[in-house]
Amino acid sequence: MAPNRERTSGTTYQVFLSFRGPDARQGITDVLYYAIIDAGIRVFRDDEEIQKGEDIGEEILRAIEESRIFVPIFSINYASTMENLLGSLPERFP
């Protein structure tokens, strides 16, 4: 399944929602996501679940770079995603 997002060609995302899978995918993440879209704001939310130890894809890293605001949604399992992200950052931002 492709990431669920609103995007106009040639523009950046205004908001990147960062969350960790099943413990945050439903509930507050959905409420926030649809409220942001209803406000007319371009938002990126990845709907593919990234497993612990799996590399974060190029598309997600590019979406982070193209976003003005990064919104972390903290949950019990959020840190496992951040471990993956932080491991990729030195390569992207030397």
UniProtKB/TrEMBL annotation:
It comes from the Eukaryota. GO terms for biological process: signal transduction. InterPro entries: TIR_dom, Toll_tir_struct_dom_sf. Keywords: Hydrolase, NAD. It catalyses: NAD(+) + H2O = ADP-D-ribose + nicotinamide + H(+). One of its GO terms (molecular function) is NAD+ nucleosidase activity, cyclic ADP-ribose generating. SUPFAM superfamilies: Toll/Interleukin receptor TIR domain (SSF52200). It holds the Pfam family TIR. Residues 11-94 form the TIR domain. Its EC number is 3.2.2.6. This is ADP-ribosyl cyclase/cyclic ADP-ribose hydrolase. It comes from Punica granatum (Pomegranate).
